[in-house]
Write a structure and sequence with these properties.
About 25% of the residues lie in helices and about 40% in strands. The protein has eight helices and 27 strands. The strands form four sheets. Strands 14, 15, 16, 17, 18, 19, 20, 21 and 22 form a nine-stranded antiparallel sheet that branches. Strands 1-6-2-3-10-11 form a six-stranded mixed sheet. A six-stranded mixed sheet has the order 5-4-24-23-27-13.
Length: about 350
């Protein structure tokens, strides 16, 4: 599947000029830029490419092995991709109200077996949103890779862009059918189960995304005792031992956010009562990254495009170890590669943290 990847820097106008140089007659556009430039960039791209469906969000951009916290990345898709973009408004209240429109957008791309993905950008309310997407995408065999917008200043709403306009409390999505090969999503955890000790969430607050008790005991006490981490160090230990929600043979990572009263742990991912929980360990991420690339190569005949979505926690960890650029270059060795660093990730029917998810096209 043919793709164009461009990057630019500076004012919105300058960045758009640089990032779209050589881009002609696209059938769809996905872009990443800074929060401050999002609205103007969306409008400029819509004016430059009238009638072309587009979605965008704020975050750190990746483009063919390079990364920047203040760059514009533009992905252009062409005639061998069928693209339909839409927006789900009011996701904090009732995203399910948009199911009718979502189903129409899905019908427009006419998904086949193993050839269609949905890339979405949202402002939050991930669990509600995932429920809506799953109800429509699963039966059609459409896989999902999503990102939560990053970079909204304190006191300002997170924003996403669709077809030239920006929206708060919303999700912008692009449905993409590859007409010349397969399209699949992949997930990578560099934090993994290092212990056979499991726990059950016996008391939770789903609205606060908190675990109040594990195995009938204060969650913080269980975490502290098992890992030998003082309570006041639990939150900063997120880079070593985040919490994992286990579903079948899959582990979905949650980042600890803050400690509440009486040993309550508030998280960025929701836990449900009776969830099976593990405290995870940071693995050999260089070996894990290699295994991910090998897995992608083994499942996809020829990789033409990789769209990566990386958690900010991964970025900060890799930057500390001076590894993120190496990681980005290695992912680009698969084929054309672009993506973003974001505030949260969605993978098929789950919202996750500290994870890399990607959409890969033959």
């Amino acid at each position: 599947m043919k793709a164009f990847i461009g990057k630019g820097k500076g004012s919105a106008g300058t960045a758009v000029e640089e990032a779209t140089k050589g881009l002609s007659a696209p059938k769809g556009i996905i872009f990443i830029t800074t929060y401050d430039a999002l609205s103007e960039t969306a409008a400029l791209l819509a004016a430059r490419f009238p009638g072309v469906p587009s979605v965008g969000t704020s975050g750190y951009g990746l483009a063919n092995g390079t990364v920047g916290e203040d760059i514009l990345v533009v992905l252009g898709l062409f005639e061998d991709a069928v693209v339909s973009c839409g927006v789900i408004p009011g996701i904090s209240e009732c995203p399910v109200a948009a199911i009718g429109d979502l189903e129409k957008k899905i019908a427009q791309v006419n998904p086949g077996k193993d050839n269609t993905v949905c890339i979405e950008f949202c402002t939050g309310s991930e669990e509600k949103l995932i429920t809506t997407f799953t109800s429509c995408l699963k039966e059609k065999g459409v896989q999902l890779a999503g990102a939560t917008a990053l970079g909204a200043p304190e006191g300002k709403p997170a924003l996403v862009a669709c077809n030239g306009a920006v929206y708060a409390d919303a999700c912008a999505y692009a449905l993409i059918r590859n007409t010349v090969g397969r399209a699949r999503t992949f997930k990578e955890n560099i934090w993994q189960k290092g212990s056979t000790i499991s726990h059950f969430a016996t008391k939770v607050d789903t609205d606060k995304k908190s675990i109040i008790e594990l195995d009938g005991k204060p969650a913080a006490s269980v975490y502290s005792q098992e890992l030998g981490i003082p309570r006041d160090k639990i939150i900063e230990n997120v880079f070593q031992n985040p919490i994992g929600r286990v579903v079948g043979d899959q582990v979905y990572i949650s980042s600890m956010k803050e400690l509440g009263a009486n040993g309550e742990i508030l998280n960025y991912k929701r836990f449900n009562k009776n969830d099976c929980v593990y405290f995870l360990e940071l693995g050999d991420y260089r070996a894990i990254e290699q295994a991910t690339r090998d897995n992608i190569r083994s499942q996809m005949k020829t990789v033409s495009l990789v769209f990566t979505i990386d958690c900010l926690h991964r970025y900060l960890l890799y930057q500390k170890d001076r590894y993120f650029s190496t990681y980005a270059e290695d992912m680009a060795s698969l084929g054309k590669s672009c993506g973003l660093v974001c505030g949260g990730e969605q993978y098929n029917n789950q919202h996750v943290n500290q994870t890399m998810v990607c959409a890969v096209f033959e």
